[in-house]
Amino acid sequence: MITPQGTDWLQTPVVELDRLFEESSARIVAKLDQLQVAGSTKERTAAFLLDGAEADGRLSAGGTVVESSSGNLGIALARHCSLRGYRFIAVVDDNANPAAIKMMRAFGADVEHVHPADGNLLAARRRRVQELLAHVPGAVTTDQYGSAHNPAAHASSTMPEFLAAAGELDTLFVATSTTGTLVGCQRYVREHHLPTRLIAVDAAGSVLFGGTAAPRKLPGLGAGILPALHDHAAPDQVVSVAEPDMVWGCRRLARTEGLLAGASTGAIVAALAGHLARGGAADGERIGLLVHDSGVPYLETVYDDEWVSLTYPHQAAAALDSSAPLPPSSAARAAG
What does the alpha-carbon distance between residue 162 and residue 151 come to, in Å, rounded to a whole number? Predict the structure, then answer.
């Protein structure tokens, strides 16, 4: 097998989105990390987490890796563990997309489900990880929630790649869950004294950045407990996005730019729509966004009209109308 050197093998294209919000004078560019081999930016995270565990001496040939995942990291770790000869156990919850679970298993992962009575999915997944570590001989966790190797992936590859292709950015929208991507981008921006303004996009119902916990149906964005990396996150602004708005954002991106992305990217599109509508963008502002993952695992949820109508009955009509200038929540605020 040819072993990749450096991070060149992780590079993905940067494209201009000139159809997404045609009326805006802002220049909007996107880094297409849904084109990673594993289908998301977690390809970067998985590689760096495993490299770190090997370098630290915690993980050796034939070892077992255990990690909590809402989907994307599980897919990427399953792929990389298969390549490196490790057993991988993914701990998931009922919000994980069925397609994502099938992809993990296709790469050889063992998948454990948790069904918490209290509804705190992330806390339950992390408890199960600790139980498995105690019972599986020699097992280690890559700890995406606290490992410094998580943000290092984005400080070392995502941001330098993005800026090399797009030039200087005035504003960058980043979806948050572990906050690893945000912290890595933040580190690069501030170490290089760049003027880029960082906007963290969170899910309504997430406890990140002072949010209040509430039930959520879509995986990959937000958190039910504060991850350790959150202590290092200091974005310039935080935008909380409701799930029907994420649906609108995904469909808007698909219908205008032909890009099929996951819910976290839909949240970014919705947050950007509000930013532009409120006059947040200066004339000619250069705005960057990360397309964090593919929309393929969401075909049975976000892109399924019946699922959307049953899950969000009061907001479904607005969420499904990708031609509307604003997502449901922003449209309601504007009307009010």
Answer: 15
